[in-house]
Amino acid sequence: MSSFKIYKKSIKPSSSKQLFDQLLKVSNFYKPNIFKNSNCYPKLWTDQKFLNKMFLLRKDKKIFSVIYDTMKLSKTLTQLPYDNKLHKIAANYLRKNEKNLMLRSVQLRMDFPFDFRNSYGWHQDNAYDKFNLQSKNSAILWIPLVDTDVKNGTIVVKPGSENSTFNYSKRVKSGNKYESEQILVKKKYLKKYESKSINMIKNNCLATYGGLFHRSGENKSDHIRFTIVVRYNNILSKDFLFYRELNNFNY
């Protein structure tokens, strides 16, 4: 069992383009005429004219927040895993029948340079939902829409931690009142594993298990890191939340 696996060309360029177009459309709805049509931004997610407008949008935190939340609900984003058959990647990685999997969530992340307030520390995705106790029954697909490396804060993982249950984490409050609560890996477990930054090519997919310790690196570049995160869980397993509750399983 590998701590992670890279699947090449996991989403089609056309899907990335559709998502880009949707972001322009949603942004123009809340901030009329801030963007022109996508033909004006030939480099899409890395186009400097587009990025300049995004930096401008973000100055109005209320508008940017509703754009972010609206994108999470858009059909373009929620349809993307189906159009690109990402469930097959999850099934292959977990070695499970794809019919046993549920799509838990799909998310578009927009990580701005030097935005350390909204970054996550070392965490496990399964500590947030607790659907599957066993790490090997959940898959996290991390798909950057731009090339990522240490400079723009590519994902950092701790190989070997993939078998950890969500009991390795706890709720943590830090910083001022505006910072959100996080569920982070307990420090005593972090010391057991080395960290590894994984450089990625856009539209490739990094598949990991739900319990793997990971975090985003710090974006110290001059551009935004756009990433899609898709999460799958095995619903036909005795460690699945509903089965555990029904049978009063004590793990």
What does this structure look like?
This protein has 251 residues and is an alpha+beta fold. Helices cover 29% and strands 21% of the residues. The chain has 8 helices and 10 strands. Strands 1-8-3-10-2 form a 5-stranded antiparallel sheet. The longest helix has 18 residues, at 13-30. It is globular, with a radius of gyration of 18 Å. It starts with a strand and ends in a 5-residue tail after the last helix. The model has no long low-confidence stretch (mean pLDDT 93).
Task: Please state the structural category.
Answer: alpha+beta
- The spatial strand order of the largest sheet comes to 1-8-3-10-2
The chain-level mean pLDDT equals 93
Helix content: 25-40%
Shape: globular
Q: Which H/E pattern describes the elements?
A: EHHHHHEHEEEEHEEEEH
Uncertain segments are: none
Strand content: 15-25%
Quickly count the helices.
8
Biggest sheet layout: 5 strands, antiparallel
**Count of beta strands:** 10
Radius of gyration: 18 Å
Distance between the termini: 22 Å
Question: What is the structure about, briefly put?
Answer:
The protein has 251 residues and is of the alpha+beta class. The chain contains eight helices and ten strands. The two termini are 22 Å apart.
Topology overview:
Elements: E1 4-7, H1 13-30, H2 48-58, H3 61-73, H4 75-83, H5 86-94, E2 101-111, H6 126-129, E3 138-144, E4 155-157, E5 169-172, E6 182-185, H7 187-190, E7 196-197, E8 205-209, E9 214-216, E10 225-234, H8 241-246
Antiparallel strand pairs: 1-8, 2-10, 3-8, 3-10, 4-7, 4-9, 5-6
Helix pairs in contact: 1-3, 1-4
